[in-house]
Amino acid sequence: xxxxxxxxxxxxxxxxxxxxxxxxxxxxxxxxxxxxxxxxxxxxxxxxxxxxxxxxxxxxxxxxxxxxxxxxxxxxxxxxxxxxxxxxxxxxxxxxxxxxxxxxxxxxxxxxxxxxxxxxxxxxxxxxxxxxxxxxxxxxxx
Length: 142
Prior knowledge:
67% of the residues lie in helices and 0% in strands. It is mainly alpha-helical. The chain has one domain: Methane Monooxygenase Hydroxylase, Chain G, domain 1, CATH 1.20.58. Helix 3 packs antiparallel against helix 4.
């Protein structure tokens, strides 16, 4: 008699075997005729220009992660909105605390400037600026 874990193990083994057999059979059956057009990078019907290794602005990833975090947290509000009456005043207060923490997190990200697409560039300090802060260059620029 198999335990529940044994059944899961058999299921996982069968899944792996199915995937390996399917990939092997498809490799045997499919035609293999690579051409220049087939190996070329496809970009929505347009001819590619430049290198496919383009550096993306890190801001894209930061904004995407912040959106994902807050989006998942907002999804948690739907079950709360449906069930908070069952918990009465306590459920309402817990939901408000959750919304307050969510709002504080959003305000922190906004204040920090992570929601802005282009951040202001920080001008690096030079050694002359540090050693001679009262030089003519600083007096004339102010």
